[in-house]
Amino acid sequence: MSDQQKTHFGYREVDVNEKAGLVAGVFHSVASRYDLMNDLMSGGIHRLWKRFTIELSGVRSGHSVLDIAGGTGDLASKFSDIVGPEGRVVLADINESMLQVGRDKLLDQGKTQALSFAQADAQYLPFEDNSFDCVTIAFGLRNVTDKDLALRSMLRVLKPGGRLLVLEFSKPTNDLLSKAYDAYSFNVLPKLGQLFAGDADSYQYLAESIRVHPDQETLKEMMLDAGFEQSEFFNMTGGIVALHRGLKPW
Amino acid sequence: MVAPSENQIDPALQVAILGAIETALVQALQYAPQTRAELNKLSGNSIHIRVVQPVLETTLLLAERPQLRSVYEDKASASIEGKLSDFLQVATAEDPAIALINGDLKIRGDTRLLQQVQTLVAELDLDWEAPISAVAGDVIGHQIGKGLRAFFRWGQHSRLALERQLSEYIVEEARLTPPPLELEDFYRDLRHLQQRLDRCEARLKRLKRERSSS
Question: Given an 8 Å threshold on Cβ–Cβ distance, is A48 in contact with B15?
Answer without folding.
Answer: yes
